[in-house]
From TrEMBL:
This is Glycosyl transferase family 2. It comes from the Bacteria. GO terms for molecular function: transferase activity. CDD domains: Beta4Glucosyltransferase. It comes from Paenibacillus prosopidis. Keywords: Transferase. Residues 5-141 form the Glycosyltransferase 2-like domain. Gene3D superfamilies: Spore Coat Polysaccharide Biosynthesis Protein SpsA, Chain A, Tetratricopeptide repeat domain. The keyword Transferase applies. The keyword Glycoprotein does not apply.
Length: 363
């Protein structure tokens, strides 16, 4: 059986570090904690789990810190996590089985990363990460922010997910790192350019971000998923700026780079719903329900668009159109995904009352 070193970089993570380590402490053979300048109880909490605690002087470079943590690992494989990550019980069991059966010729294990959840705790946004890597391959992290672990060789995709629950963000810090790079004459890669535009968006610099998204979309060498994400984020920027026509055109542009996908089709539907054009919204939501989930391994996907979300929105749209039977039908389907959701249960109650009233009036 392989041995695994958990490598983490942390700073002021006293709120979440125990949750993370409690879910993986029995799955790994050693825990490496690299602290980049905590002023809270982070290091004290880490000491309850490991003696391998190291300090790294922060130099505005996440990759440098992660590579430093990897250098302290001694296991056959390295698992990396952030402090606000954790493994749910089912994923812990799957991980335990993987550790017992993993072919040592595998260079990297790619896992799902649940980065957002609905009120019922179901993942709504899933991306892929090379999460477990062979130490002897000496894979390196690149990029100072939104760092990326470059791997090659034999890569497998495991049915294991790491869950993420962010408790604090620092988008100004990330933006300042990019601005610092550019001020020093640095040239951003295509991937860095997209992340820079997203940081601009998060900080409200919408027009500047739109210009970068357009550059990415126009670049024939850009990856199709980067173009799709640029279209989506550009639509968000135009929405915030009140540019309704440009918002819609940005969403429709996604069809240039992939077959219709439910996540983007739902965004178009919601555009019409938000503008009270409920008949058009219904048509787009109905289209979303007919689309199959992509079989190819995409590195980012909004999963709720293939499950309950179109049905729940159709409840609202059909309700506005006075088509209560259709609204009730889709609410029942939404209820099958979320049988205990109070909002869906309340919809059921209201719709049943409205339907009884209508039938009594028609009698």
């Amino acid at each position: 059986m392989i041995t695994i070193s958990l490598c983490m970089i942390v700073k002021n993570e006293e709120q979440v570090l125990s949750r993370c380590l409690d879910t993986v402490k029995d799955l790994v053979d050693e825990i490496i904690i690299v602290d980049t300048g905590s002023t809270d109880r982070t290091k004290e909490i880490a000491a309850n789990y490991t003696t391998h605690i190291f300090h790294f002087d922060w130099i505005d470079d996440f990759s440098a810190a992660r590579n430093y943590s990897f250098r302290h690992a001694a296991g056959d494989y390295i698992l990396w996590l952030d402090a606000d990550d954790w493994l749910q019980e089912s994923d812990q069991e799957k991980f335990k089985a993987l550790k017992q059966t993993l072919d040592p010729n595998v260079d990297s294990v790619c896992m799902d990363y649940y980065v957002a959840f609905d009120p019922l705790g179901q993942p709504t946004a899933v991306i892929k990460r090379n999460r477990l890597v062979k130490r002897s391959r000496q894979f390196q992290w690149h990029d100072p922010v939104h760092e990326q672990l470059e791997v090659e060789g034999r890569i497998i995709f495991a049915d294991i997910a790491v869950s993420h629950g962010r408790v604090h963000t620092n988008t100004e810090r990330n933006l300042s790192i990019y601005e610092g790079l550019l001020a020093q004459g640095g040239i951003l890669s295509s991937r860095q350019l997209l992340q820079y535009a997203m940081e601009l968006t998060a900080n409200g610099y919408y027009e500047k971000a739109i210009g970068i998204y357009q550059t990415i979309i126009s670049d024939p060498t850009s990856y199709f998923e980067d173009k799709l994400q640029s279209c989506d984020r550009m639509a968000h920027c135009n929405h915030e700026l009140g540019n309704k026509e440009q918002e819609l055109q940005s969403l429709l542009k996604t069809f240039n780079y992939d077959i219709p996908r439910a996540d983007y089709v739902c965004r178009i539907a919601y555009y019409f719903q938000e503008n009270s054009d409920f008949e058009k919204a219904v048509c787009w939501y109905q289209l979303a329900l007919k689309l199959e989930k992509p079989k190819k391994r995409l590195f980012g996907m909004n999963t709720m668009a293939w499950t309950w979300f179109p049905h729940l929105q159709l409840v609202a749209c059909y309700g506005k159109l006075g088509q209560l039977e259709q609204a009730y039908e889709h609410n029942e389907i939404a209820l099958s995904y979320a049988p205990n959701d109070p909002n869906v249960l309340n919809n059921k109650k209201l719709l049943e009352a409205a339907l009884r009233k209508r039938r009594s009036e028609d009698a």
